[in-house]
Input
Amino acid sequence: MKKRKDTVVAHAGNHPAENHGIVNPPVYHASTVLFPTLAALEGASKMGYDKVRYGRFGTPTTFAFEEAVAALEQGFGTVTYPSGLGAICSVLLALLKAGDHVLMADTAYFPTRRFCEGFLKRYGVRTTFYDPMLGARIAELIEPATRVVFVESPGSLTFEVQDVPAIADAAHRAGAVVVIDNTWSAGYFFQPLKHGVDISLQAATKFLVGHSDAMLGVATCADRATFEIVKGSACELGTCAGPDDCYLGLRGLRTLAARMDRHQATGLKLAAWLKGRPEVEAVYHPALPGNPGHEFWKRDFSGACGLFSFVLRPVEKTALAAMLDGLEVFGIGYSWGGYESLIVPAHPEASRSATRWPHAGPVLRIHAGLEDADDLIADLASGLKRLAGL
Ligand SMILES: *Cc1c(COP(=O)(O)O)cnc(C)c1O
Output
């Protein structure tokens, strides 16, 4: 039977019959794996990546989580890392060598940008940052040395949705590999591998883990050849995730469908409310008409998570601090994707080189959690009163 997405999310990777009928896989804590004979030991080096041979290469707990994520992202195979950033850097190192060139979205997650400007530059890899809205015109920036075209859609902090199929098409014509940071959609609202992307990365720390209690990253590859490059490099770099964290990722995944629907509903409610407020100059949310790339979101995504940003009219820092410091439900902090709502100032103007951020006022990014939406609105409403000095 062909299973629909929510059924896949609930069951993929679980094999109770192989585990005494117990629903979830056990957490294997492992370094050494024993072999019964010399022949078995020598044969281990010829084993595929799905076999247990040494802790660093993965355990049945790792494989269960990877199987589930690969099913969610509809890819050939998934590789797990100890953080989202670990996944991004390890994949870039797997694909690139000195002399190569990377095209990186100007709106990429800041540490991704820093990795290009620091590490990759030192290792002789050049990066050109591109306007995320350029679509098929990315062809004009592709050079003979371009090996990776990296997209992040929607963009970090400002949520521009990219024309991923058009970019992937141009990249493939030039023989480049297309990598996406798919953390925002959780692989739940967007399946990039079905739209021409070769490798879909996620900070599983965010929605897959979903409870703000573990760091984890995943890279899902469209085909076997790409998977073998990515997995092989992860094994060589030693970037393996711990078993408890893989378990938390798998456990989080089981409730992903219910959580994402709620994040979506609350995020839309907050965004609509903020849009109607006189203190707010702009709201950036992919599902709102007028958001850059809204038409691509409508075409390619099946929904939106609760992460978006809004821009206040210019105010004094003390007023902004009064607004944020007095919040009772929202937490002030980094990361997102957990059950609890977060708000954090963002500074897109400080990390862009191919585009210009058009606002002068403070940018606030919201992660809409699983609390009562009306309580969140009431919290923001009293925050805006404090902002106005009332
Ligand atoms: C948080 C985040 C990452 C990094 O994930 P970590 O698990 O914190 O290392 C990567 N990309 C995006 C878009 C993120 O928001």
Residues 83-85, 109, 156, 181, 183, 203, 205-206, 215, 217, 335 surround pyridoxal-5'-phosphate (CB under 6 Å). The two ends are 60 Å apart (CA to CA). The first strand starts at residue 77 and ends at 81. The longest helix spans residues 256-275.
